[in-house]
């Protein structure tokens, strides 16, 4: 057991924070979300140059062989800087699934562009009725000679607004499968949706979209299980993003209350406020512990994975909301204005609470897992494999 | 970075499990289940300590040279988890975890040679003499006075909240030896034989119905100068060192998880109307929330341990966070357990210790003790530096 970051990991953390501090300040971010595309191609290509886009992929697939810990460090920095580019959706979620399910040809075709920053796949899986029951999808795939015909509706596709290719799930002979669908395919309608945190997604409608046989990802694999595992990877990443935001809110609140003078002294000199900030710090610490457990659980057996990941999303949902609400309150009216990042962090945390399962969904999923007393009472330490 | 045990640690864990299977008998486990207090009934605690001592495990945190185990932090963590899972009586308190590290660090050879073996053997049981009626969180304002008279001090004053002082043979105490300078500078650390003439002990029953606390009065009590630890006026530094042990030197992950597991078992038992709480979504939501708190706290403990193992310091914000969260988690588990008793929560068994009463089913006994456990849990956020003091420590670090 060792929970210390390695020197390389600390270097990555520092370089990620510095890069975003220099190149992605709050003003720049506001320009990006107000722009026509809601996306900065220059930043994305710089991320490619830094190796971020290839980071979590295996070296044999052309990646850099980074693991969940490396991803968590990038995500913390992304949280603080409020990055709206689709690192999570295109790299971790869709890219991760391509790596798990793609044939050599599919991997070569999609991942090459993804690492270079020229291709941004997006996963189109959940539907209106899916909720958190990931197998509950209605989109269908039918064979038509050598090709497949796909029909269905996929609302709120994360990363969809910037995608050139979609990984669309549909039921083929009753089993969930994934298909590569080019964004310009005939029969595919993409409608841009503005999200509560300033980023963008897409609503997709597929009406008899015709695809070649080569569009199918792995006929044999248990695709649904891989999608669930991929969701756990992004949920662990979201937990780290939330931790990055919470720390940013904490720092901003401390700095503001030290500066703001009322009744002849800084707000930070009032004990009533000091203790509220100390309570925020307690929540930041706890969230950090939870997110680390999620990060170190993404490759664990399913029950342990759920315990780590959904436990973190449930816990962090609750404490991050409290920290964000307190940060606004302690900033007073300034915290209520869009001119400061406080409100943007608050809204991003709210978005996270409703992305890839709500806080309540994750608490329920965690609750089901700990009904088994062996899971509930089990140590966090694991036996060597 | 990983959560993996080494092969050696797995073997160690299995050795601990085997030992507990064979030595922690049903009587000891039952007594602990029926104990609403932080520490076990002394008769039970000492019986268990003797068994551990035979194995050489009575003091997991002590270095080998003093009769401890010399274990790594990871091994101590594993021992703690396994002992809690098995339901051991909690008895590593003021003797093993507080005064012993102080004697090792600040005591002379004579003091070490005399006192440390007596702690391991159970011959000495120590009580804490810190708080006074007028000095709680503001500990340095203490007034109990020791006046030098030849080769001994004459002590007058009173200490309060001394856990198990009525069973203890000795007390370590902070006393005032000077009034000059800052109030912290006139404090001295002494060891008091509680059999000395002039010592009177008044019991204080706590709200859980148990007599665990006491007020101890000193009326011209003679304490040999050779029972002073460190120099005169060095008491405050020693006290701070000891409080570090009280705060950071323990793991709570094991006990919190064990309490949660007991609550799960209680909630799985059918109620008189046939329902089980574990099928109640409101109950499960609450249980799940607390379980996520336990996981998070566990990770903080493991992170702090990793830092220490690498030669670092966990830092004051994580340490105080753990103190605060452990108390809150313990309190919320106890509160939730008591909340499912229904009208039977009104019944209160006054006899102490509860394990002396005729044996009932395990679940009935869990129900019998649940209210008292809840009442007792309120002390968690008060002792060892109250949660408000912890918030002060965090705020000071944040805002400096």
CATH superfamily of the largest domain in chain A, called what? Butyryl-CoA Dehydrogenase, subunit A, domain 3
Count of helical stretches of chain B:
12
What overall form of chain B do the CA principal axes indicate? Answer: globular
The overall average pLDDT of chain A, rounded, is 97
Number of helices of chain A: 12
Extended strand count of chain A: 10
CATH topology of the largest domain in chain A: Butyryl-CoA Dehydrogenase, subunit A, domain 3
What is the CATH superfamily classification of the largest domain in chain B?
Butyryl-CoA Dehydrogenase, subunit A, domain 3
CATH architecture of the largest domain in chain A: Up-down Bundle
User: How many domains would you count in the coordinates of chain B?
Assistant: 3
Given helix and strand content, the structural type of chain A is alpha+beta
Features:
heterodimer, A: 385 residues, alpha+beta, Butyryl-Coa Dehydrogenase, subunit A, domain 1, Butyryl-CoA Dehydrogenase, subunit A, domain 2, Butyryl-CoA Dehydrogenase, subunit A, domain 3, 3 domains, eight-stranded mixed beta sheet, two-stranded antiparallel ribbon, 12 helices, 10 strands, 16% strand, B: 400 residues, four-stranded mixed beta sheet, four-stranded antiparallel beta sheet, 48% helix, 14% strand, globular
Briefly say what this structure is.
Chain A is α+β, with helices and mostly antiparallel strands. Helix content of chain A is 52%, strand content 16%.
Secondary structure elements and their pairing?
The complex is a heterodimer of chains A (385) and B (400).
Chain A: H1 7-23, H2 26-34, H3 41-50, H4 68-81, H5 87-101, H6 104-116, E1 121-124, E2 140-144, E3 147-158, E4 165-172, E5 175-182, E6 188-194, E7 200-212, E8 216-217, H7 223-259, E9 261-262, E10 265-266, H8 271-295, H9 302-331, H10 341-353, H11 359-369, H12 373-377
Helix pairs in contact in A: 1-4, 4-7, 5-6, 5-7, 7-8, 7-9, 7-10, 8-9, 9-10, 9-11
Chain B: H1 7-23, H2 26-33, H3 42-55, H4 73-86, H5 94-106, H6 109-121, E1 126-129, E2 145-149, E3 152-160, E4 170-176, E5 187-193, E6 199-205, E7 211-224, E8 228-229, H7 235-248, H8 253-268, H9 281-309, H10 316-339, H11 362-377, H12 387-399
Parallel strand pairs in B: 1-4
Antiparallel strand pairs in B: 2-3, 3-7, 4-5, 5-8, 6-7
Helix pairs in contact in B: 1-4, 4-8, 5-6, 5-7, 8-9, 8-10, 9-10, 10-11, 10-12
């Amino acid at each position: 057991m060792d929970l210390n970051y390695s020197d390389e990991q600390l270097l990555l953390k520092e370089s990620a924070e510095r890069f975003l501090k220099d190149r992605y300040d709050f003003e720049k971010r506001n320009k990006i979300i107000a722009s026509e595309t809601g996306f900065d191609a220059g930043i994305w290509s710089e991320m490619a140059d830094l190796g971020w886009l290839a980071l979590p992929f295996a070296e044999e697939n052309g990646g850099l062989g980074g693991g969940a810990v490396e991803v968590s460090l990038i995500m913390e920095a992304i949280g603080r800087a409020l990055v709206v580019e689709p690192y999570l959706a295109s790299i971790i979620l869709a890219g991760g699934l391509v790596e798990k399910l793609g044939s050599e040809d599919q991997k070569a075709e999609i991942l090459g562009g993804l690492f270079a920053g020229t291709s941004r796949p997006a996963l189109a899986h959940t539907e209106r009725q899916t909720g958190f029951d990931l197998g509950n999808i209605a989109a269908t795939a039918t064979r038509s000679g050598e090709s497949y015909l796909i029909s269905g509706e996929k609302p709120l596709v994360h990363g969809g607004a910037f995608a050139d290719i979609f990984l669309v799930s549909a039921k083929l002979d009753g089993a969930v499968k994934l298909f590569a669908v080019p964004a310009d395919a005939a029969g595919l309608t993409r409608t841009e949706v503005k999200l509560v945190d300033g980023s963008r997604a897409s609503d997709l409608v597929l009406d008899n979209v015709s695809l070649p046989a080569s569009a199918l990802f792995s006929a044999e694999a248990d695709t649904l299980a891989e999608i669930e595992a991929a969701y756990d990877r992004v949920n662990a990443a979201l937990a780290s993003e939330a931790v990055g935001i919470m720390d940013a809110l904490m720092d901003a609140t401390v700095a503001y209350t030290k500066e703001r003078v009322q009744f002849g002294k800084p707000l930070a000199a009032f004990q009533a406020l000091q203790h509220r900030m100390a309570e925020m710090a307690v929540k930041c610490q706890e969230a950090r512990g939870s997110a680390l457990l999620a990060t170190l659980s993404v490759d664990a057996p399913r029950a342990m994975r759920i315990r780590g990941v959904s436990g973190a999303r449930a816990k962090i949902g609750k404490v991050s909301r409290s920290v964000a609400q307190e940060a606004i309150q302690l900033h007073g009216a300034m915290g209520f204005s869009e001119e400061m990042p406080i409100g943007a962090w608050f809204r991003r945390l709210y978005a996270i609470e409703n992305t890839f399962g709500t806080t309540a969904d994750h608490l329920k999923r965690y609750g089901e897992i700990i009904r088994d007393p062996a899971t509930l009472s089990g140590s966090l330490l694991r036996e060597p494999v | 970075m990983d959560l993996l045990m080494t092969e050696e640690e797995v073997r160690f864990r299995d050795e601990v499990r085997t030992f507990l299977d064979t030595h922690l008998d049903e009587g000891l486990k039952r007594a602990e289940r029926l104990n609403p207090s932080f520490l076990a009934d002394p008769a039970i605690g000492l019986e268990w300590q003797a068994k551990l001592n035979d194995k050489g495990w009575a003091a997991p945190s002590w270095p080998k040279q003093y009769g401890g185990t010399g274990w790594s932090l990871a091994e101590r963590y594993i021992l703690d988890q396994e002992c809690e899972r098995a339901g051991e009586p909690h008895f590593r308190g003021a003797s093993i975890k507080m005064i012993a590290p102080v004697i090792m660090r600040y005591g002379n050879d004579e003091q070490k040679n005399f006192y440390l073996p007596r702690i391991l053997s159970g011959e000495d049981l120590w009580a804490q003499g810190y708080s006074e009626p007028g000095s709680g969180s503001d500990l340095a304002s203490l007034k109990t006075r020791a006046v030098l008279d030849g080769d001994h001090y004459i002590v007058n004053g009173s200490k309060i909240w001394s856990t198990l002082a009525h069973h203890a043979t000795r007390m370590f105490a902070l006393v005032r030896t000077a009034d000059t300078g800052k109030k912290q500078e006139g404090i001295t650390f002494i060891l008091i034989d509680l059999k000395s003439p002039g010592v009177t002990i008044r019991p204080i029953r706590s709200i859980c119905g148990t007599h665990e606390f006491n007020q101890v009065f000193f009326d011209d009590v003679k304490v040999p100068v050779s029972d002073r630890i460190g120099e005169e006026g060095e008491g405050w530094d020693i006290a701070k060192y000891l409080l570090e042990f009280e705060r950071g030197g323990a793991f709570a992950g094991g006990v919190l998880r064990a309490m949660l597991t007991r609550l799960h078992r209680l909630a799985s038992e059918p109620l008189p109307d046939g329902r089980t709480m574990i099928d109640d979504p409101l109950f499960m939501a609450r249980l799940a929330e607390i379980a996520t708190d336990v996981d998070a706290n566990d990770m903080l403990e493991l992170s702090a341990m990793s830092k220490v193992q690498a030669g670092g310091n966990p830092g004051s914000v994580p340490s105080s966070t753990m103190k605060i969260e452990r108390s809150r988690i313990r309190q919320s588990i106890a509160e939730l357990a008591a909340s499912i008793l229904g009208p039977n929560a009104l019944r209160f068994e006054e006899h102490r210790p509860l394990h002396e009463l005729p044996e009932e089913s395990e679940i009935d006994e869990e129900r019998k003790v649940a209210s008292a456990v809840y009442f007792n849990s309120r002390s968690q956020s008060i002792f060892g530096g109250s949660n408000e003091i912890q918030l002060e420590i965090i705020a000071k670090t944040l805002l400096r």
